[in-house]
Amino acid sequence: MAIEDPSAEHGLRLTIKDYPFAADGLLLWDAIKQWVSDYVNHYYPNNGLIEADYELQAWWAEVRTRGHEDKKDESWWPILGTPDDLIQILTTIIWVVSGHHAAVNFGEHIFAGYIPSRSMIARMNMPTEGPLEENLRNFLRRPELVLLQCFPSQIQATKVMAVLYVLSTHSWD
What we know:
The chain contains eight helices and two strands, in the order E-E-H-H-H-H-H-H-H-H. Strands 1-2 form a two-stranded antiparallel ribbon. Strand 1 (2-4) and strand 2 form a beta hairpin. The protein has helices at residues 20-43, 47-52, 54-67, 83-105, 108-112, 133-141, 143-150, 154-168, and strands at residues 2-4, 12-14.
């Protein structure tokens, strides 16, 4: 978490000062934003060019209305009318698919690869959600047996573990 602070190095003051993900992430964010700014300002030196670029406007409309159809009417979507708007939009997209994606995925296998820690698939509802009182009594009497029935099958668990392993592995090159 961060609070906007124009006097801070990156324009943000971290609420937890010693948080490597945030501190390193801000350095990466700034590098991405600088590169995007140089690129956008080279090709779009004024607002009129952004507004007149029908392909760019069509791309942004498609991102909002087709890529996120369930969120297309939300008021928080940025307007694409200035080079600064485009810089913010592109920086955010590049950050999410690079630094943020890597940070949230690389630790997945350690945390969730052991299925009892974080099962991705449940074969039945937890007993408190079911209509049968007998299920709840069985759960209260021997919770480990009921939990074992909820866990995914071996093949389902193996598939999840394999995907998490791939997501958590750094590229060899």
